[in-house]
């Protein structure tokens, strides 16, 4: 129970918690004050009733003493009857005068208390209780008792019953007034507390709102005017928040710059590789042209030479087309096709050729896969280039691409020295959206970033026969999501 | 000559008295504490007698009767009962006329809703009497009981005196007394003036008609001119505007000179209880 309450209390926002606390305290104070007021009022009323009763009984006993001494029924009754009309201060219900033997001499209500009869037992016990004022709040009644004495002789007793409903009604009215006033105060203080707390925590709400926009990539600093207006504690908070945003923006800019540089570096590498790939067959092609010029008449030579020319030009065409696809399709989203990965070997041909690497290529993708072609090509190319760089001369590089269990899986293995810590750090930083570690190639960092962006992941592990393997997996969206992703 | 001398002697005395106030005693035969009535009564008598009048009120019949008998009062409105107790000392000045007769009744009253039909059923009651010297408020009931060989103490459970007919009505109406003996004239007048109070009571028994409470003086003074003037003033009330106002307040029709025999029935009742005692 308490635990549940604590959990509820903990989950309440500050803007509600403080006013509720204020209201609860107000209620406690109100209850305490009400208790004090009511008990003081009750004391006051009791004292006032006691005083009134004393005055009333003084007057009445003076009036009836001679009648009591004579045991004069009529005069006693007349005194009581007049007293009942004269004392407006108390709501007299009846007065009974009894003789020392307890029998009624006269009563203001003679039909209830017949002259000569004995008092009813409850009243008789009140009369002999020895107390001069008995209050029964439940019955709304009070009884006054006065023994009448003359020259030290007990000559009779006066008993008066009083209706104290009015006194109790006053008390009830006071209670109701207290409840209304206190409820009003509680509401007022609670509302004031709510408004004040809302005002006080408004700066926090502002920061909260700013942070909420951060997920959409737009983290904006708090305006100078706001910082100047804010209370000192919050001004400091704002300044720190703004400093944090500036730092973040700087890191973002740096990362973008690094990524750009990496892109340029890769472009340069690709360009030089491409030039090499184009240049290699050029010597042969030039020879072929010379051959055609000299032996062009020989049909057999012409056919073989043209064939050589065609293959050389086709090789150049592949390389150029692959470069074109890579740098063109980055601007336009398009679904991945089986063919999209098929020209990657041409792009790394320079690396594999230079180191005489053995590339095992297994592309088991279907004709079309519902995932962004450009990102996948970039991930694959980055990882492949990384593998080439890591592999020693005549090493082996394996590539596999497949779709299964609703996900796309690419794996690249190499026979390099394994995974250095820096490579792992670069991948982790990319996955966490942090800036790339300084002094490290951006291939794995970029691939990791792209993998996360696609909702997938990049796992780096030691290869089965030494070296390392990098496995990329990404879930494939359903029909509609795919359409939306492409659109 | 002697008579002349007496008259001469009496004349200055009479003149001297004329300048002093006439003292007139009142018992609670009629409605007590009616200040306007007393004022009117005094004003009328002063004017009619052309001399100041001092009204003397006492709580009991006995006190007024004692003052009258001792010569402290010139005249007093007493009850038929004290009058018949002192036949040799008191003489009639005038008797009020109620419903044009110098007669009234004694009523025995009970609570309006009490289911009794005869006075015999009141045995054991707390009974309220008006005054031990009142005819209607004591003697009539006591004589009735005496006729039946009973006394108030043997017949009633308890009795008390209220010293006022109005108080008897109040005592019965409030339930302090279960029955009461009261002046019929007073009860009748009250039933018009205080219907709320009187309607809580009802008349169980009406006595025979008896002589109305008279205005009396010392027999020794009966022949004086001041008593003659007083008789004249009282009997003249219906012919005077202020007198008529007084009569209207008292709900009487006038005052008349009546013979002593008017009170014979009361005297008989007195003798009856005296014999019983």
Report the average pLDDT across residues of chain A: 81
Number of beta strands of chain A: 12
Cα radius of gyration of chain B in angstroms? 20 Å
Give me the Rg of chain A, rounded: 52 Å
**Interface with most residues:** A-B, 13 and 15 residues
Stretches of chain B where pLDDT falls below 50 for ≥5 residues? 1-17
Shape of chain B: globular
Helix-and-strand structural type of chain A:
alpha+beta
- CA-to-CA gap between the ends of chain A? 53 Å
- Number of helices in the DSSP assignment of chain B: 12
Mean pLDDT of chain B: 89
What is the percent of helical residues of chain A?
55-70%
Termini Cα gap of chain B: 50 Å
Strand order in the sheet with the most strands of chain A: 2-1-5-4-3
Give the uncertain stretches of chain A in residue-range form. Answer: none
How would you characterize the largest beta sheet of chain B? 6 strands, mixed
What oligomeric assembly is this protein in? heterodimer
Shape of chain A: rod-shaped
């Amino acid at each position: 129970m308490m635990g549940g309450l604590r959990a509820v209390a903990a989950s309440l926002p500050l803007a509600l918690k403080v006013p509720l606390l204020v209201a609860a305290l107000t209620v406690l104070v109100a209850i305490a004050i009400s208790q004090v007021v009511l008990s003081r009022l009750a004391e006051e009323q009791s004292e006032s009733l006691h005083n009134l009763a004393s005055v009333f009984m003084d007057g009445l006993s003076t009036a009836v003493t001679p009648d009591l001494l004579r045991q004069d029924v009529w005069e006693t009754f007349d005194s009581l009857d007049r007293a009942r009309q004269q004392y407006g201060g108390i709501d007299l219900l009846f007065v009974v005068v009894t003789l020392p033997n307890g029998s009624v001499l006269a009563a203001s209500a003679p039909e209830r208390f017949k002259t000569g009869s004995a008092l009813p037992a409850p009243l008789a016990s009140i009369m002999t209780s020895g107390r001069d004022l008995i209050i029964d709040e439940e019955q709304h009644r009070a009884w006054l008792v006065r023994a009448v004495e003359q020259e030290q002789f007990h000559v009779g007793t006066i008993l008066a019953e009083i209706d104290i409903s009015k006194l109790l009604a006053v008390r009830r009215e006071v209670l109701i007034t207290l409840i209304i006033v206190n409820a009003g105060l509680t509401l007022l203080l609670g509302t004031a507390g709510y408004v004040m707390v809302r005002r006080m925590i408004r700066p926090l709400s502002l920061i909260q709102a700013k942070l909420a926009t951060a997920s959409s990539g737009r983290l904006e600093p708090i305006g100078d005017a706001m910082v100047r207006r804010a209370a000192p504690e919050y001004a400091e908070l704002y300044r720190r928040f703004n400093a944090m945003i500036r730092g973040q923006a700087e890191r973002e800019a740096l990362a973008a710059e690094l990524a750009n540089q990496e892109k340029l570096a890769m472009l340069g590498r690709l360009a030089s590789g491409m030039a090499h790939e184009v240049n290699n067959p050029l010597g042969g092609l030039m020879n072929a042209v010379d051959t055609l010029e000299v032996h062009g008449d020989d049909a057999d030579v012409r056919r073989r030479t043209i064939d050589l020319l065609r293959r050389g030009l086709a090789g150049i065409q592949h390389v150029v087309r692959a470069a074109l696809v890579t740098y063109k399709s980055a601007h336009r989203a398009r679904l991945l096709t089986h063919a999209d990965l098929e020209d990657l070997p041409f792009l790394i041909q320079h690396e594999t050729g230079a180191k005489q690497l053995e590339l095992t290529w297994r592309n088991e993708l279907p004709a079309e896969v519902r995932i962004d072609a450009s990102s996948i090509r970039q991930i694959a190319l980055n990882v492949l280039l990384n593998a080439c760089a890591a592999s020693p001369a005549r090493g082996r590089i394996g590539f596999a691409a497949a779709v299964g269990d609703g996900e796309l899986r690419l794996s690249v293995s190499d026979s390099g020295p394994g995974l250095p810590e820096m490579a792992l750090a670069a991948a982790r930083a990319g996955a966490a959206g942090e800036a790339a570690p300084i002094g490290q190639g951006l291939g794995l960092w970029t691939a990791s970033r792209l993998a996360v962006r696609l909702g997938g992941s990049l796992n780096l592990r030691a290869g089965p026969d030494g070296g390392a393997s990098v496995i990329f997996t990404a879930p494939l969206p359903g029909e509609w999501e795919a359409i939306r992703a492409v659109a | 000559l002697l008579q002349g001398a007496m008259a001469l002697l009496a004349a200055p005395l009479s003149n001297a008295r004329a300048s002093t106030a006439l003292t007139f005693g009142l018992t609670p035969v009629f409605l007590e504490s009616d200040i306007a009535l007393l004022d009117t009564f005094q004003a009328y008598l002063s004017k009619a007698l052309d001399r100041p009048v001092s009204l003397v009120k006492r709580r009991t019949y006995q006190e007024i009767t004692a003052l009258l008998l001792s010569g402290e009062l010139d005249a007093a409105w007493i009850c038929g009962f004290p009058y018949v107790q002192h036949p040799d000392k008191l003489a009639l000045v005038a008797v009020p006329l109620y419903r044009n007769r110098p007669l009234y009744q004694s009523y025995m009253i009970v609570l309006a809703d009490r289911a009794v039909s005869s006075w015999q059923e009141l045995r054991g009651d707390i009974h309220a009497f008006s005054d031990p010297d009142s005819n209607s408020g004591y003697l009539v009931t006591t004589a009735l009981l005496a006729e039946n060989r009973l006394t108030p103490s043997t017949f009633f459970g308890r009795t008390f005196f209220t010293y006022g007919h109005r108080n008897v009505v109040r005592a019965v109406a409030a339930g302090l007394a279960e029955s009461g003996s009261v002046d019929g004239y007073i009860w009748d007048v009250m039933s018009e003036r205080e219907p709320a109070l009187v309607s809580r009571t009802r008349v169980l028994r009406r006595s025979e008609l008896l002589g109305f409470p008279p205005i009396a003086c010392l027999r020794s003074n009966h022949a004086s001119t001041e008593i003659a003037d007083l008789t004249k003033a009282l009997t003249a009330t219906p012919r005077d505007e202020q007198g008529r106002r007084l009569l209207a307040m008292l709900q009487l029709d006038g005052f008349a000179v009546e013979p002593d025999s008017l009170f014979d029935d009361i005297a008989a009742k007195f003798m009856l209880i005296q014999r019983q005692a």
